[in-house]
Amino acid sequence: MQLQYGTAILAIGLVTVHLLMQGVLVPYGEAVSFQRVLSVYRDAVDGALLEVLLVVVLAHGFNGLRIILLEWRQSARWTRGVNWAVLLVTLVAISYGTRTVILAATGQVS
Amino acid sequence: MATNKRGVAGWLDPLHLNIERWAYVFQRVTGLAVLAYVLGHIGDTSFFVGGPFGEGPSPSSWSSDLSVTENAFGHVVLVMVVLVVVYHGINGIRLILSEYGMIFAKPSRPDYPYKAKSLRTVQKHLIWVAIIAAILAALYTGGTLFG
User: Fold this and answer.
1) How many Å lie between the alpha carbon of A104 and the closest alpha carbon of chain B?
2) What's the number of CA atoms in the CB half-sphere (13 Å) around residue B60?
3) Could A100 and B93 be called an inter-chain contact, meaning their C-beta atoms sit closer than 8 Å?
4) Is residue B110 part of a domain?
5) Under 8 Å CB-to-CB from A107, ≥6 apart: which residues?
């Protein structure tokens, strides 16, 4: 559960900042405009925050799903299978999101 | 973790007589809902760079993505996401504090009316703080998106 609590505390801070940037400090319409999103991804600090948010929230969410699945059924085989499957799916999701961050930060605007 | 012989079926116990049990069920349901939203959100935001096969930031791909999400239905989803995220976050703070015994009173001898005194502390109020803050945040979001 230490992983769940650690990622929870990080996620609370990161999600709070994310929500404030997407509608409180920056008006919602502006926050989703192409130019604004581009400048966020291309800012070193803001872009890095999005990447950390991605990793922390996915780690927390999929670890939570793992906890529920392990509570659902209990056997050594189920536990091993769930652990590997959840780890794999988490890494795939992180990779897909990271690809967006990298392409948005460095890709050629078309 | 304590042994849970009934697994997830235990969530549906009709004898959820105390608010902490309901807060627990809501924590898990909102957690699953947020995970589902986050996965959808990662897929949706990838259209900023043209989707799964895109190669870089694309204004046309992004505007066609916004035409799917920026409508009344999409905004209702966002309001509900804010509602469950704020609940999950504040109730989660309560769970972490209670895990380390910070918001409980010391156990004492049971006296009439036999309600556990150790639970009748700020930990119970925090559940209501989570619910009310979630509703206020959702109203604010609704005002921003629909106002």
Assistant:
1) 5
2) 2
3) no
4) yes
5) B49, B55, B56, B57
* CATH number for the segment(s) A2-106: 1.20.1300.10
pLDDT of res. B4: 61
| Residue A23 forms contact with B (CB below 8 Å) | yes
| Domain boundaries, given as residue ranges, for chain A | 2-106
| Predicted ipTM beyond 0.90 | yes
Tens digits of pLDDT across chain B (147 residues): 455 667 777 777 777 678 888 999 999 999 999 999 999 999 999 999 999 999 999 999 999 999 999 999 999 999 999 999 999 999 999 999 999 888 888 878 878 888 777 777 888 999 999 999 999 999 999 999 998
Instruction: State how far residue A108 is from chain B, nearest Cα, in angstroms.
Output: 5
- Residue B31: CB partners within 8 Å, gap ≥ 6? A61, A64, B88
Residue B124 lies in a domain: yes
**Contact assignment for B62 to A93 by CB distance below 8 Å:** no
